[in-house]
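User: Reviewer 2 asked us to show a designed sequence for the structure in our supplementary figure. I'm pasting the structure tokens here. Could you produce the per-position amino acids so we can include them in the response letter?
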């Protein structure tokens, strides 16, 4: 059910537009569907029983298809990233690091065909702090700067009407980790108090509209 919903959403976002633009037999919707199947076949189980999904994807295209996709590659990456994130939330999959999608050219690959390599990769910084989505159960590892908002470029995309496009940032500093509200319209509440900036402590509850996160540190 979840997979069908995400695939239908992908069709609404990309299929109609890209089908008109490209004469190639390869359509972006095919890549989106294959990524979802690849996630299922490459997931693993952590020692605590959590399901871990791959977060690093390399999509190998023919030279002709890669050339066709160059002009819309950023948009396509954003849509694919958002779909991966939504699907994994539905399936209660977790990530070891940020989602990364890149395209490569395979000079021997026939036009209209592609291959996806999916791996699990930790963030290079190897940070241990994270936000846990209290409803969906997804755990987001925090980097040096982590962005939150409705915009698809955000590290943590908020599917929340009360959230602003660029709602907040989490900054790692020498004296701690700080949650910074970016003058959002409806604000951010931490432990039931509206904040503009707050130094995070283990167990802090962060609420944006109806979306709630728990800040967790495993040091």
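Assistant: Here is a per-position design you can include in the supplement:
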């Amino acid at each position: 059910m979840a997979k069908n919903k995400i695939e239908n959403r992908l069709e609404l976002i990309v299929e109609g537009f890209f089908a008109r633009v490209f004469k190639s037999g390869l359509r972006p919707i095919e890549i989106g569907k294959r990524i979802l199947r690849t996630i299922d076949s490459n997931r693993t189980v952590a020692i605590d029983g959590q399901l871990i999904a791959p977060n690093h994807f390399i999509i190998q295209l023919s030279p002709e298809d890669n050339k066709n996709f160059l002009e819309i590659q950023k948009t396509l990456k954003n849509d694919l990233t958002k779909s991966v994130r939504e699907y994994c939330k539905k399936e209660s999959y977790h990530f070891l690091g940020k989602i990364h999608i890149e395209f490569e050219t395979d000079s021997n690959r026939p036009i209209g065909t592609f291959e996806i390599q999916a791996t699990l990769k930790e963030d290079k910084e190897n940070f241990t702090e994270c936000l846990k989505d209290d409803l969906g159960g997804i755990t987001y590892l925090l980097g040096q700067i982590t962005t939150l908002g409705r915009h698809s470029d955000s590290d943590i995309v908020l599917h929340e009407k009360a959230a602003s496009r660029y709602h907040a940032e989490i900054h790692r500093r020498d004296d701690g980790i700080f949650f910074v509200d970016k003058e959002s319209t409806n604000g951010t509440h931490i432990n039931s108090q509206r904040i503009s900036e707050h130094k995070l402590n283990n167990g802090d509850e962060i609420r944006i509209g109806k979306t709630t996160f728990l800040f967790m540190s495993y040091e």
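For the response letter, you might also mention the following. Confidence is low (pLDDT under 50) at residues 16-22. The helical segments are 2-21, 28-42, 63-69, 73-90.
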